[in-house]
Each structure stands twice: as structure tokens, then as C-alpha cells.
Amino acid sequence: LLLLSFCSSVLSSPLLQSHLAAVPFNEGTARSEMLPLSSAAYSDSPQTCLSSQLKTAKLSKQVTLKCDYFKKDSCSGFTFFDETREVIGFSFRGTSDSTQLVSEITDTLFDSKVVFQDGGKTSKYFNDAFIDVWNGGLGNDFSALVAKYPSYTVWITGHSLGGALASMAVAHITSNDIVSKEKVVLYTFGQPRTGDKKYADVHDNLVTSFRVTHSKDIVAHIPPQFMNYEHHTSEVFGDNDIREGSAYVVCGKQEDKRCSDKNVLNTSPDDHTHYYGKEVSGWGHDGCP
Questions:
Q1: Where, by residue number, does the polypeptide cross the bilayer (predicted)?
Q2: Which of these, 30, 163, 252, 259, has the minimum number of CB atoms within 10 Å of its CB?
Q3: Element (H, E) at 107
Q4: What number of CA atoms fall less than 13 Å from residue 36's CA on the CB side?
Q5: Could you give the CA distance from residue 90 to residue 131 in angstroms, rounded to a whole number?
């Protein structure tokens, strides 16, 4: 992990001083809607979280499959719809435990990147996990929701590994015109670098997205840049406890020294597991009370 824990800690500031000043990042949406959706993906019963925090959102389909060499490790995602908010979307589960994290890291270190079907190259582990879950039923169910609710906004989210899968999913659905990019809203939490520079560029041309990073979050720095990985824009960085009302800065570059890239070898697993005052996976397992 020392090899892979890079950077992270910098100023806290109200909104931003970048060319993305007009982009509508919404802290309330991130905290009160996208985070509960990300946490719900850790549960085998996502509807409990949806009913607790979003009230009118309904689970459509959950897909959970084995996704690596360790038999107990799984990758998972679910689709949902909300007729009150006029939203459809999906959320991907993050890394389930330390064993799965080891598998992610070793696959990244020892396996070459693979060509992502919609442009650039990504981690083989992330690519395999996304394709398995998407082709395992999530993609078909999402297409059915699009057909049923063609005018609805699309919300996509995920924490940790789930953020990487959400990133790939949004690139896939917009590049293949399953939905127009103007309808898509992507928020991730503690997302690792997902692919190379070309993948980041392809992603940024397809959708506006926000990667929320909690201060010294260790996972935001893996895989490291020296392995030719690059974050896509835009990072929303809080160098604090990022609770309601905390200051944050939005950085407009793919890798920006004003945000988490400013720290070197000063990272924290605890900052990765906690967002907006919640222990993301545990809160989801408990039904998001």
C-alpha cells in the first residue's frame, strides 16, 4: 500500500477558482441523495436505504456476481427509479473488504491495462467487473427504464470501486447514445484512478462529472500516476470532515495540485471509508438510518 498511497491534502475553500465555476455541483445532492444511493449498494436490500433517505425512490434490479479470484468477493450494482423526482439511474457497490482491495491492487500491478470498449484503456480488474455486472442484467434493466421513462434525468453514483464502475458505465451509456449526456448526472465518492489519459479525455468529452474526495482518502491516489493512470475531471475536494456546510474546492484539471494531488505519502484509510459524516459501507448495511 505504501507504493500505491500517493498524495492528498490541500486547502479548503468555498467553491472554486477554475474554469468550471459555472458547473452546478450541488453539495446537497451529493450529501443527501447520491451518498445514500452509494451506501445502498453495499446492502443486499437497497430498498431499505432508498425508503429511509430518498422516500419515493424504488429499487428496480440488483445484480451481484463474483468478480475476482477470491470466491467470497463480489461486485454489485442496482438500478432504481423515482417518479416523484423524475429520475432513473444506478449505483455500484464499492470494495467489500481488505481481501478484495488486495485483489484490485495486485491485478492492477501485474496485469496490463485493457482496451475499454468506448475508448482508452482501463484497469483490467475494473473493466472485468463492469462488464460482468453490466452484462449480467444491469444494462438490460437500465435500458428498460430508459424506454419507460425517456424524459427522466439519469443519476449514476458509487463509492470506491463503485466509483470506477460508475465512471465506466456513464462513458458507456453516453458514447452509445443509450441516453444523451445532457441528461446524465455522475457523482462518485473516493473513486480510484480508473484508466489512462485517453480514457480520462474520452470520459470528459462525454459527460460532466464530480469526484468527491475526502481530504487524505488513500484510494483517490491508486493506481498511481507513474503507472500511466489519470483521473478525469472534476474533483470536489474537502480538506476537512466534509460534513454539511464544510468548505470545499472544485478543481478543473484532471490532476490538480490544489486538490488531493497536493499531498504525498500522507493518506488515510479512514478518510476513504467516511464521507459526509457517514461510514459509507456500514451505513448502507444498516439500512441508512
A1: none
A2: 252
A3: helix 98-110
A4: 20
A5: 15
In angstroms, the CA 58 to CA 86 distance is: 12
First to last CA, the chain: 33
Q: Which runs of E-coded beta strand occur in the chain?
A: 58-66, 74-82, 87-92, 114-115, 121-122, 153-159, 184-189, 209-214, 235-238, 249-251, 274-275, 278-279
pLDDT digits (tens, 9 = 90+) for 146-170: 999 999 999 999 999 999 999 999 9
% pLDDT > 70, the chain: 84
Q: Residue 124 has which C-alpha cell?
A: 483490467
CA angle (4, 255, 128) in 5-degree steps = 55
Average pLDDT in the chain: 86
How far is the C-alpha of 136 from the C-alpha of 85, rounded, in Å? 27
Answer for the pair 80, 55: CB distance below 8 angstroms, yes or no.
Answer: no
Q: Is 213 helix (H, G, I), strand (E, B) or coil?
A: strand
